[in-house]
Amino acid sequence: MQQKQISNKAINQIFLILLILLIGYSIFKYLLYYLPGFLGAITLYMLFRKMFIKLTAERKLNKSLVSISMIFLAIVFIVLPTWALVNYLVPQATELFQNKDLIMSKYNAVQAYMHKTPILKEIDLSNEALMNFLQELAKYVPSLLNSVAEVLINLVVAFFVLYFMQVNNEKLERSIYGFIPFSEKSKTEIFDEINMMVRSNAIGIPILGLCQGIVAVIGYMIFGVDNPILWGLITGLASIIPVVGTMAVWVPICVVVLATGTVGNGIGLALYCLILVGSIDNVLRFTILKKLGDVHPLITVFGVLLGLNMFGVLGLIFGPLILSSIFVLFKVYNNEFGKSKIILPSDDKLDDQ
To answer: Where are the transmembrane segments (predicted)?
Structure first.
């Protein structure tokens, strides 16, 4: 009889777990459109957490007022600069691409230059190849236009969720800590890893892009590139591209400068971008970004590739976090059941080997 009761209890538990998973999947499926908003709220919560606790727990300020103030700060320092950047780039890029004569003259010059260069002449730069490229590019225009509305909606969702996360922060964190079935040491390591990855990517990636963009603008001005501010901003944005990074922008610009007859400027610009624009990535990673969080480059590269496909722009933050969580889970397993020490790629000891 007792065995039968245990069996029925196990069946009921399995049924309950399956029911929870089914309901969770159904909810997730219909709320997938708002997932960037939830991820954005988590990001902002982690970034503002220490400041929020200091103001509310230590100085006893009203939680609602502090949360609204932080949402206002996020709008001023994140949303408005992003809107200003888009508001500048879109008209400039539209005006540039509408000048078909200028584009074709530059393209023909590059085509002739590459045809005369033995190493580059094998690259297909025919008019047919250009048309195919433009057709492929045009496919992304509707999705970009739709993404504007999606971003606005998810911003509202992010601030709405952030408010309730902050106002109920103590209850929220106690619930999450209680739900995780690990020791206090493992829970602390998981939280520290999430906090480090979010701060490293949410703060580090914009800093890296801004610095590379500024250095690129200076170089483009020195060596006579048309629209240096526009191309500098695009170069900074290209820093998020895994592996290739800013080379995706400054290499074609250098080729155009070389093809239009200013060989000295082209060589000088190529050396400038290779030495300064390219190396600033390494300089920042070993100085400012290392203080934010010492994330292994392989986790960053492959995490960004994973995250962009899963979450879009916010995948820059959560892609590396998901990839890093695999190593954290191994470390947690070792804490709970193992005996030997597992060294993560982000550990300092890895650099000494």
So the answer is: 12-28, 34-53, 65-86, 144-165, 203-223, 229-257, 308-330
CB 184 within 8 A of CB 253: no
Q: What are phi and psi of 223, to 5 degrees?
A: -100, 20
Query: Predicted confidence band at 351 (pLDDT cuts at 50, 70, 90)?
Result: very low
State the total domains in the chain: 2
**Max Cα–Cα distance, the chain, nearest Å:** 93
Angle at which helix 169-179 crosses helix 35-53, to 10 degrees, equals: 110
CA distance 207 to 210: 5
Co-location of 39 and 82 in the same domain: yes
Tell me whether residue 17 is in a domain.
yes
Contact at 8 Å (CB) between 157 and 62? no
301-318 per-position pLDDT tens digit? 777 777 777 766 667 667
- Identity at 184, one-letter amino acid code: E
pLDDT tens digit sequence for 194-242: 888 777 777 877 888 888 999 999 999 998 888 899 899 989 888 877 7
Residues 149 and 87 in one domain: yes
Residue 158 maps to a domain: yes
**What contacts 24+ positions apart, CB below 8 Å, involve 58-66?**
63/166, 63/167, 63/169, 64/163, 64/167, 66/166
For residue 2, the enclosing domain spans 1-30
Global confidence as pTM? 0.75
Q: What does 188-223 look like in DSSP terms, one character per residue?
A: HHHHHHHHHHHHHHHHHHHHHHHHHHHHHHHHHHHT
End-to-end CA distance of the chain: 60
Check the CA dihedral 117-122-127-130 and report its sign. Answer: negative
